[in-house]
């Protein structure tokens, strides 16, 4: 068995980027889940991770050689309000590992104890949100959506106090970096141009290595493009992030910070799950507009690096931001055309997609099963009034949709809220069967195994989850 070899490039950035500190030890760590296939991809020895030494690392009780644990500082707009200092309040970057293919991966513990950025929080996480992030982030990966990954979950043997006492847990999060729009905003707000340049260079090396390291405009262009594609992908899956604050917006175009996120069951563009999103700021249909707002914050943070002449910098940044509209529209169309089996289209096909969505909303049609049902004839069963589907289908069939394309684009299985909730409740009673089953099934979201029919079904009335929580 071999222990992982760590290093920490982020720790080579100036001291004001982070606070160095070890994780806070926990009394009785136990492995809840290990992601073997991710371990292999990263070149880590899964047997070692399962050993006492491995579990001690995953729980934060031992810091591995070469690591340099630190809490990253960032800022952000939360629900539109500016917070000049946030940061890893319940997480620590242990360091990074280099995969066999030469790529660098941050290994972060989430739930590892308080840091100087914890504010009123305890720095801990409980098993429910850890399970949720594990299941949903791994499902997103299997669905082909760029995302942070989950390498492991451990329980700590220590309760965490929320609405009640819950078992504490720690998620090991893996990502190509943890740099957020809010990381740039933090240094921009302090007018720390030297730090901004260093951060830009780091982010470019990690995410857009084809750019030169001081190409702020090129970087903005790439982030706009990556995030437009990401959110279009979310939209095509009925995914609602729930907390699209700028500190949860990743400059590499990854989905990050799974809190009160959820996949919709019945289609409703105004759908909101998050208990703290009272005004629907982050509703399903609002996500593209919020994204462009977040990207404008990034643009504004980058201005001094774009051009020393502010007017010229603004002009250049605006030109890039104006590209978001067409970029996003194109990405959205590509996603939704594929969902109805078309490789391309024009005004008529756009109207066709929109007409279907309108009819779905009017008929409380299940988002996932309607699209999945297009190529096997079951879509109409999702409509309160199936003739509303038939009228649409007549026009659609005339376009000769490609069944193979639809089967590759429309998953039959998504992590449904009520299943996640049931898995959490069972785990709290000491039974991990549903978690294991869900996790295994979600790794193959496009090939419907007959025995997983119950996991694909929408919730019955009494099973519906109406609200989701940050879990902090
Ligand atoms: P979020 O919106 O959940 O990504 O978190 C926003 C901020 O709150 C981040 O700076 C987190 O590190 C911090 N935070 C969330 N939960 C906790 C907690 N239990 N203890 C300390 N800080 C937390
Ligand atoms: Mg966050």
Question: Helices, strands, pairings?
Answer:
Elements: E1 18-20, E2 30-34, H1 36-42, H2 46-50, H3 52-58, E3 70-72, E4 76-78, E5 81-83, E6 91-98, E7 104-110, E8 125-126, H4 127-142, E9 149-161, E10 165-175, H5 181-189, H6 193-207, H7 216-237, E11 239-240, E12 262-263, H8 287-306, H9 310-322, H10 324-339, H11 347-362, H12 367-372, H13 386-397, H14 403-409, H15 417-428, H16 433-442, H17 453-456
Antiparallel strand pairs: 1-3, 2-9, 4-5, 6-7, 7-10, 8-10, 9-10, 11-12
Helix pairs in contact: 4-15, 4-16, 5-6, 5-8, 7-8, 7-9, 7-10, 8-9, 11-13, 15-16
The chain binds adenosine monophosphate and magnesium ion.
Précis, in short:
Among the domains are: 9-175, no CATH class; 333-409, no CATH class. It is built from 17 helices and 12 strands.
**Unreliable stretches covering 5 or more consecutive residues:** none
Please report which band the strand proportion falls in: under 5%, 5-15%, 15-25%, 25-35%, 35-45% or over 45%.
5-15%
Oligomer: single chain
- Enumerate the distinct ligands: adenosine monophosphate, magnesium ion
Query: How many strand units?
Result: 12
Main sheet summary: 6 strands, antiparallel
The number of helical segments is: 17
Residue share in helices?
A: 40-55%
Rg on CA atoms, Å: 22 Å
User: What overall form do the CA principal axes indicate?
Assistant: globular
- Class based on secondary structure composition and strand pairing: alpha+beta
Alpha-carbon distance between the two ends: 36 Å
Give the SSE order as H and E letters.
Answer: EEHHHEEEEEEHEEHHHEEHHHHHHHHHH
The average pLDDT value, as a whole number, equals: 97
């Amino acid at each position: 068995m071999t222990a992982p070899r760590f290093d920490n490039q982020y720790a080579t950035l100036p001291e004001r980027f982070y606070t160095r500190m070890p994780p806070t030890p926990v009394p009785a760590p136990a492995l809840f889940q290990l992601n073997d296939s991710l371990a292999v991809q990263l070149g880590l020895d899964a047997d070692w991770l399962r050993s006492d030494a491995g579990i001690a690392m995953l729980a934060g009780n031992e810091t591995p050689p070469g690591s340099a644990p630190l809490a990253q500082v960032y800022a952000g707009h939360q629900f539109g309000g500016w917070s000049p200092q946030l940061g890893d309040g319940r997480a620590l970057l242990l360091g990074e590992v280099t995969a066999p293919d030469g790529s660098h991966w941050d290994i972060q513990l989430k739930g590892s104890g308080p840091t100087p950025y914890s504010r009123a929080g305890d720095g801990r996480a409980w098993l429910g949100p850890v399970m949720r992030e594990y299941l949903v982030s791994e499902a997103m990966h299997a669905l082909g959506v760029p995302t942070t990954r989950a390498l492991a979950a451990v329980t700590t043997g220590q309760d965490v106090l929320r609405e009640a006492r819950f078992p504490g847990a720690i998620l090991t999060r893996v990502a190509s970096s943890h740099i957020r729009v809010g990381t740039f905003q933090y240094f921009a707000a302090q007018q720390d141009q030297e730090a901004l340049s260093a951060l830009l260079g780091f982010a470019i090396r990690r995410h857009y290595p084809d750019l030169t390291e001081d190409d702020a405009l090129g970087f903005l262009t790439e982030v706009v493009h990556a995030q437009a594609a990401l959110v279009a992908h979310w939209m095509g899956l009925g995914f609602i992030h729930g907390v699209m604050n700028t500190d949860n917006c990743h400059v590499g175009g990854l989905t990050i910070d799974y809190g009160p996120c959820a996949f919709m069951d019945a289609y409703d563009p105004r759908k909101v799950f998050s208990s703290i999103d009272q005004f629907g700021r982050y509703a399903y249909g609002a996500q593209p507009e919020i994204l462009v707002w977040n990207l404008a914050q990034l643009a504004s943070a980058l201005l001094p690096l774009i051009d020393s002449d502010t007017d010229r910098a603004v002009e250049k940044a605006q030109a890039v931001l104006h590209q978001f509209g067409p970029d996003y529209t194109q990405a959205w169309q590509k996603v939704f055309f594929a969902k109805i089996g078309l490789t391309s289209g024009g005004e008529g096909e756009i109207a066709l997609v929109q007409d279907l969505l309108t009819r779905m909303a009017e008929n409380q049609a299940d988002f996932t099963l309607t699209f999945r049902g297009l190529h096997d004839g079951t879509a109409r069963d999702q409509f309160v009034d199936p003739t509303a589907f038939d009228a649409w289908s007549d026009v659609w069939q005339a376009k000769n949709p490609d069944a193979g394309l639809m089967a590759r684009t429309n998953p039959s299985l998504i992590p449904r809220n009520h299943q996640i909730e049931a898995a959490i409740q069972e785990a709290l009673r000491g039974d991990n069967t549903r978690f294991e089953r869900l996790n295994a099934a979600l790794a193959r979201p496009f090939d419907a195994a007959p025995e997983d029919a119950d996991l694909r079904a929408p919730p019955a009335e009494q099973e519906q989850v109406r609200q989701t929580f940050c879990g902090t």
